[in-house]
Amino acid sequence: MKRTIRAAFLGLVFAVLAGTAAHAVSESFKGMIYDNGPLKATDSKLKVRVGEQAPDFTLRSISGKKVSLSDYKGKNNVVISFIPAAWTPVCSDQWPGYALAQDVFKKNEAMVLGISTDNIPSLYAWTSQMNGVWFPVLSDFWPHGEVARMYGVLRSDGTADRTILIVDKKGRIRYIGLHSINTRPPLEEIIQELERIR
Amino acid sequence: MSRTFTAGLGMLLFLFFFTALPLGAQDPREEHLRALNSLSLYAPEDAGERQYLGLKDAPEKISLGRIEAEVLIVEVFSMYCPHCQRHAPDANKLYHALDSREEFRNKIKMIGIGIGNSPYEVGLFREKYDPPFPLFDDRGSAVVGTLSGIYTPHYFGLKMKDGSIREIFYSESGAFSDAEAFLDMIVEESGIQRGGNS
Q1: pLDDT, tens digit, for every residue of A157-193?
Q2: What digits encode the pLDDT tens for the residues A62-110?
Q3: Is A23 a catalytic residue?
Q4: Which of A70, A112, A194, B137 could share a disulfide with A135, CB 3.0–4.6 Å?
Q5: In this structure, is residue B8 part of a structural domain?
Q6: Sign of CA dihedral A113, A116, A121, A125
Q7: Which residues of B are less than 8 Å from A22 in CB distance?
Q8: Cα distances (angstroms) measured from residue A31 to each of A26, A88, B9, B146
């Protein structure tokens, strides 16, 4: 009986929280978003630290090209943006802002690498609905979540935690922001960190 | 322990059935009217914008009802919303169409509210699209936490009287393509009388 009451209590807590979770969704994605409600904020354990060399990786982008982190060594600071999943509310409301801030990223000599464990067709369709983005969108689908696992941001359900890493031109990690899966990281936080390493 | 659970369960049941369900069944315009009247937003700092809105001596934070207008057009947008980015030039055309109609210029005012957007994020949107009308930010997430069930961009047409919003006569998510036609519709739906400077 006690267990039933506890289950009902937790279920209601979830229902009330889900009902009050507020997020603005663009008309661009009306009827296309899969909203699974609030999830466990983070579900991974970082394997990298600020000050360390960022582990190199090579992934295929939605343009079909292979992109490596080391391609940018000596040329650009890199903002690695792991997002949990295409066609979900917060993720669909994150990269379009980075698209708008292209000039600010450029001013800070930064390239964004967007990474998701979704497959390429899904990522292609999703980012097309955003009107495209100016930075490479990389699929960490197969071997599934290998790069996310290497960085320690792979969640137990195979998606990635919402994480921002800033890697300087020498390949050193200068900032790690492991954010709640349920909220969008503030853009100014990323830009402030970039300005700090300029 | 079980007493705590029973009390908690009782409270949640109360919240769920006497708060959440009736709200869901209500007319969204009624709910939005209450929400818009309850908002307290940071007034623009720009002197020209303050003058346009009649906020010359207004405090740091204002309610929308404080804005001097008979009719207020509110575009709820987000800098993260691809549709809002594409629509920005048309929103600017709406303001210019309004400004060119002398008979309504001082009676109908227009603002934008960046839902869920920080001052920095709204600033980026302003820098990119140079809107000629005042933009409000959503620091503290007051708007995103209050206005539910809308997609961005969303337009509200509001009738104003005696320092508050009296009626929402227009409320639609999505962009318009013809600014002049949209303004004609706002004029007609609001029932506003033609007139010179008021």
Answers
A1: 999 999 999 999 999 999 999 999 998 899 999 999 9
A2: 999 999 999 999 999 999 999 999 988 888 889 999 999 999 999 999 9
A3: no
A4: A112
A5: no
A6: negative
A7: 141, 144-146, 148
A8: 10, 11, 33, 21
Adjacent-strand bridge partners of A138: A61, A115
Give yes or no for a contact between B112 and B77, defined as CB atoms under 8 angstroms apart. Answer: yes
Tell whether the model's pLDDT for residue B22 goes beyond 70.
no
Which residues of chain B neighbour A26 with C-beta distances below 8 Å? Answer: 78, 80-84, 151-152
Does B9 fall in a domain?
no
Query: What domains does chain A contain, in order, with CATH numbers?
Result: 2-197 (3.40.30.10)
Give the E-state strand segments of chain A in sequence order.
Answer: 25-26, 58-61, 66-68, 77-82, 110-116, 137-139, 163-167, 173-178
CB A157 within 8 A of CB A43: yes
B101: pLDDT strictly greater than 80: yes
State the residue range of the domain holding B148. Answer: 28-190
Look up the ipTM and state it.
Answer: 0.80
CB B9 within 8 A of CB A9: yes
Which one-letter amino acid corresponds to residue B23? L
Best of A100, A187, A190, A195 to mutate (most B CBs within 10 Å, chain B): A100
**CATH number for B82:** 3.40.30.10
Unique residue bearing structure tokens 């575009």: B75
CA neighbor of B83 nearest in space, from B19, B157, B153:
B153
Within a domain: B197: no
Please state whether beta strands A25-26 and B151-152 pair in parallel, antiparallel, or not at all (unpaired). parallel
